[in-house]
Specification:
Layout (H helix, E strand, L loop, with lengths): L3 E11 L3 E8 L3 E7 L8 H5 L6 E6 L4 E9 L8 H17 L7 H13 L6 H15 L19 E4 L6 E3 L4 E2 H8 L9 H16 L5 H14 L7
Parallel strand pairs: 3-5
Antiparallel strand pairs: 1-2, 1-4, 2-3, 4-5, 6-7, 6-8
Helix pairs in contact: 2-4, 2-7, 3-4, 4-6
Length: about 240
């Protein structure tokens, strides 16, 4: 096979000198593989196989678990710290959890690549994450339906919550107003004042895909927010 663009989503030790890795690839989506020898001291592959660093990889194997054959760096890693780093870890954890193995998700790969360019700048992080989440939802056929369960239009004066089964919106006093949901339905996800509702919608849509096990990155973000409110220096 030709070398394929990829990013490391997750890595854990395997046997004495190898690692089990989860990769996001351009043409094959999420790929699970054994990276042999990367845990060996002095391994050049170990230095290349880092989160947020563009790679070119090849692999062999017919089953779900592949074996990496070629792994080359293809540029510098995104320089992330603090909240930007946590956003990147969230994206990696999310895609590892929700993407099936080897489902082609070229748009997700494109939005992930664009997100890494934005995460160092605080003002662009929320929008970049929402675009990635929406790309994943679309790839998984889990996009929210901005209608009521019967397909009718939402009342601009009403309030609604997302029903995880039908992916439509049902009346709920603690929900989002219909006017805001109509704006989101038109694609105005980055319009002023819509950051909170956009996050609420994508979180509700992703919840059935993630299941009951919480995301570790969300807990780390919550701890960071608590430290900031307490006036402490955030630490990861």
């Amino acid at each position: 096979m030709q070398p394929e663009p990829a990013f490391l989503l997750h890595k854990r030790p395997y046997r004495e000198t190898s690692a089990l890795v989860e990769l996001l690839t351009l043409h094959h989506g999420r790929v699970r593989a054994v990276a042999q020898g990367v845990q060996r001291p002095g391994s050049r592959s170990r230095a290349r196989l880092q989160p947020f660093a563009p790679l070119h990889v090849t692999w062999v194997g017919e089953g779900e678990l592949k074996r990496l054959r070629l792994m080359e760096g293809h540029g510098s890693a995104a320089l992330l710290a603090g909240e930007g780093l946590l956003c990147g870890l969230y994206a990696n954890e999310l895609l590892t959890r929700v993407l099936p193995v080897e489902l082609p998700v070229a748009e997700v790969f494109a939005f992930y690549t664009a997100m890494l360019e934005v995460l160092p700048r605080p003002e662009g992080r929320a929008g970049a994450l929402r675009r990635l989440e929406l790309a994943a939802l679309e790839a998984l056929d889990a996009w929210p339906r901005f209608t009521d369960p019967e397909g009718g239009e939402l009342d601009p004066q009403g309030r609604y919550v997302l029903d995880p089964v039908s992916r439509a919106f049902v009346a709920g006093e603690a929900g989002i107003d219909g006017r805001t949901l109509r704006l989101l339905a038109r694609g105005d996800w980055s319009a002023p004042g819509l950051a909170g509702p956009a996050k609420a919608v994508t979180r509700a849509a992703l919840a059935p895909l993630l299941g009951s096990r919480p995301l570790r990155s969300r807990e780390l973000m919550r701890q960071l927010a608590q430290r900031r409110r307490a006036g402490l220096r955030p630490e990861l």
